[in-house]
Amino acid sequence: MHVAFVHRRGFGQFAALAAQLAQAGNEVSLITETIDQKIPSVRVVRHRAESGPRANPHMARHMGTPDHHARIGHRVAETLDAMARQGLVPDIVVGHIGWGSMMFLKDVLPRVPALGYCEFFYRSEGADIGFSPDDRPDLETRKRLRLRNIAQLLSLEAIEAGISPTHWQRSLYPADAQGRISVCHEGVDTARFRPDPTTSVRLSDGRVLRAGGSPIVTFVARDLEPYRGFPQALEAAAKVVRKRPDALFVFVGGDGTSYGVPPPGGGAWKDHLLESLDIPQENILFPGVVTHSVLRQLFQISAAHLYLTYPFVLSWSVLEAMACGALVIGSDTAPVREVIRAGRNGLLVPFFDADALAEVILDALKNPERHLGMRAAARRTVERRFRLTDCLERQQDILEKLSGKSLLRQSLVQL
Length: 415
Fold this sequence. Notes:
Blueprint: E1 2-6, H1 15-23, E2 27-32, E3 42-46, H2 64-85, E4 92-96, H3 105-108, E5 114-117, H4 139-148, H5 150-158, E6 161-164, H6 167-171, H7 175-178, E7 181-183, E8 200-202, E9 208-210, E10 216-223, H8 230-243, E11 248-254, H9 269-274, E12 284-288, H10 292-301, E13 304-307, H11 316-323, E14 328-331, H12 334-337, E15 347-349, H13 354-366, H14 372-385, H15 388-403
Parallel strand pairs: 1-2, 1-4, 2-3, 4-5, 5-6, 6-7, 10-11, 10-13, 11-12, 13-14, 14-15
Antiparallel strand pairs: 8-9
Helix pairs in contact: 8-13, 11-14
C-alpha cells in the first residue's frame, strides 16, 4: 500500500508509523516544508514554505492566519497534483489538519481516503484561553480564535476519519465530528524508556548526575514558559532548596516562547523570573535543549519529575517519564488528569499554587519509599495504554479499514 503523510515540520507525530510501514515494505511518502529526520525508504517531497501571516490593510480582521493556512493548503495541493501526474497516487493520505495542509486534498484526490491528525481545536473557554486568572478573552480574541479554526473545519468536512492522541483533545472538536475521530496515541517506546536507577547523565558542561547523591528534580518543556508552568516550578524550587539545600533542580528546555506571550520587555522567561527569585545558582541547572537519550537518563535518575501544563496538548515527555518509572508531580488540569490518577500513579497539585507544589516535592524527597508503588503504577499505565507496539497496531488497523486495502506488516517486539 502507498501511504502519504502530510506534515509541515517533517514526520512529527507520524515518525514511528512511517518507519514501521516503510520497514515492512509499504510505499511511504512525506509531503512537507522541512524535514526533521531521515527514515530509510521513505520518499520525501518538499514544497515551498509559505511565509507567516501577512499584514494587509485590505484584509478583513483576523484573516491573517486563515490566509496563511490557505496558502499552505495550496502548496500541498500542488504537490499532490504533481505526484498524481507522475503516477504516484497514494492509497490513503494521513495528515495534520491544524495548518491548512489538508484543506484542498479532496479537490486533488477526490477518491483517495484521508485520515486527519486532530491535535487541538481552539476555543475561547474550556481550554488554554481564559485559564489564567488574569486572562479574560475579549470579543476580538474570541472572533480571532473562531477564524483560526477555519482550516480544521474545512478539513474535517473533507476527511473520512480523524485521530487524536487523547480523549480530552478529541473532546475539544465539534460534537458532530467527534464520532469520526478515534483516540490513539503515537505511542511510547517502553523498551527504550524504562526504569534504570543505575544510569548516569553527563551534561554538556561536563557535570555528571546520578541517583543516590543529591536528589534530582526534573522539569522538561520545549521552552521554559508559563504555558508549561515554568514560573510555578521555579518558584517552588526556590522554596524547596531553603529546606533541602541538597536538592538539585534540572530545567530542560529552550529560552523561546512556543505558546502564549513573551515576558514583559521581551527576552527569556527564565531570565525575567530569576531577577525576582532568591535561589542559589548551585541548586538549579539549565542545560537547554538536550538529546532524547539524555532526557531518558534524566527521567531514570529523577527523584521527582514536574509536569505542569495549561489545558493544552499533552506532552510526550510526561508519558516517557512515567515509562521510566519517574514520580510525576503534575498539574491538576484536564490533560494531566487523563493519565495521572492522584495517589495511584502520580501526584497532582493546583496549577498556580507554587506553595502546594513545593510541599509535595519536599514530601517526595523526604519519603521516597512511600512513592515506589506510584512509580511502578506509572509505568504500568504507559504499558497498558500507550505502548508503541500496541499504538502502531491500532493505527495500522485504522489505515486498513479506511483504505479497504491490506498493509504489509512487520511485528515489532518490545520487552
